[in-house]
Amino acid sequence: MDDATRCPCLTGLPYGECCGPLHRGERSAPTAEALMRSRYSAFAAGEADYLRATWHPSTRPGSLELEPGRRWRRLDILGTRAGGPFDDAGEVEFVAFFADDDGTRGQLAERSRFVRDAGTWFYVDGDVRS
Ligand SMILES: [Zn+2]
């Protein structure tokens, strides 16, 4: 993804000043919400390695297949609990909207749990809401 492109997580910043440096391993996410945003952007940009790397080892899947032909169109952060620079755990509630190549549109609503291990935030798991 081009650094000048608007970041998929919709902060309004260019990718090169938002989630790009996280995907490239140049910076790590300071908060659970920042990690959540960068993981959403990784789905949008097809960065499967980043998704695996930011998944906590205790719950990380053996392999990860991204849905082919799925375009992630919008992320709404609905709320956060803890997950700040001085916390070791946090939750982020969000809705992500997608459109598939066959015209199907859908959304994923989840309350995700994150932990911080040795200063690095990881995604643990989440409760999907309908
Ligand atoms: Zn971003």
From TrEMBL:
<comment type="similarity">
    <text>Belongs to the UPF0225 family.</text>
</comment>
<feature type="domain" description="YchJ-like middle NTF2-like">
    <location>
        <begin position="31"/>
        <end position="126"/>
    </location>
</feature>
<dbReference type="InterPro" id="IPR032710">
    <property type="entry name" value="NTF2-like_dom_sf"/>
</dbReference>
<dbReference type="InterPro" id="IPR048469">
    <property type="entry name" value="YchJ-like_M"/>
</dbReference>
<protein>
    <recommendedName>
        <fullName>UPF0225 protein GCM10023216_28580</fullName>
    </recommendedName>
</protein>
<dbReference type="Pfam" id="PF17775">
    <property type="entry name" value="YchJ_M-like"/>
</dbReference>
<dbReference type="InterPro" id="IPR023006">
    <property type="entry name" value="YchJ-like"/>
</dbReference>
